[in-house]
Amino acid sequence: MTKIIFIDPDGNEQIVDAENGLSLLEVAHNNDIDLEGACEGSLACSTCHIIVEKGFFEKLPEPSEEEEDMLDLAFGLTHTSRLGCQIIIDDKLEGMKVKIPSGTRNISVE
Ligand code: FES
C-alpha cells in the first residue's frame, strides 16, 4: 500500500491507502473521491486531469504522446498536470499529493 494525498478543489486533503498497480483514477474511485474519468482510462477524455506535486511529478514516467494530446485539451492545464488514469501507483509515490482541479472539460461527450 502507498499513501496518496488527494486535495480537492476547496483545498481539503484526504489521505488514502492506494494499492500498488492500480491507476490513480481507480484509487480515487475506490475512495469516493470526485475525479470523473469519463472514458475509464482509454485516453479519450481529459476528465481525469490532476495536478501532481512538483517533486513527485519528476518521479513519474514520461507521459505518452496520446496522454500529452489529451492533456492539451484539459481545463486549467499546469506544468505538473497529468491524467490520473495513466499514473500507476508504486512505492516511489509514497506521500504524493495530487490536486483535483476545479473544472474539467469533457470532450468525449460534447
Ligand atoms: S479517464 Fe479518460 S483519459 Fe483518463
Secondary structure elements and pairings:
Blueprint: E1 2-7, E2 13-18, H1 24-30, E3 49-52, H2 54-57, H3 65-72, E4 81-83, E5 96-99
Parallel strand pairs: 1-5
Antiparallel strand pairs: 1-2, 3-4, 3-5
This protein binds FE2/S2 (inorganic) cluster (FES).
Residues 25, 37-41, 43-45, 47-48, 70, 83, 85 line the site of FE2/S2 (inorganic) cluster (FES).
Characterise this structure.
By secondary structure, the chain is α+β, with helices and mostly antiparallel strands. It is 17% helix and 21% strand. It has three helices and five strands; from the N terminus they run ββαβααββ. It has helices at 24-30, 54-57, 65-72, and strands spanning 2-7, 13-18, 49-52, 81-83, 96-99. A five-stranded mixed sheet has the order 2-1-5-3-4. The radius of gyration is 12 Å and the shape is globular. FE2/S2 (inorganic) cluster is lined by residues 25, 37-41, 43-45, 47-48, 70, 83, 85.
Task: Provide a concise account of the structure shown.
It is built from 3 helices and 5 strands. The protein is an alpha+beta fold and 110 residues long. The structure holds FE2/S2 (inorganic) cluster (FES).
Which geometry do the CA atoms define? globular
Alpha plus pi helix count: 3
What is the residue-mean pLDDT, rounded to a whole number?
A: 93
Helix content: 10-25%
Main sheet: strand order: 2-1-5-3-4
**Strand runs, count:** 5
Contiguous low-pLDDT stretches (5 residues minimum) are: none
The largest pleated sheet is described as: 5 strands, mixed
Order of helices and strands: EEHEHHEE
Instruction: Report how far the terminal alpha carbons are from each other.
Output: 37 Å
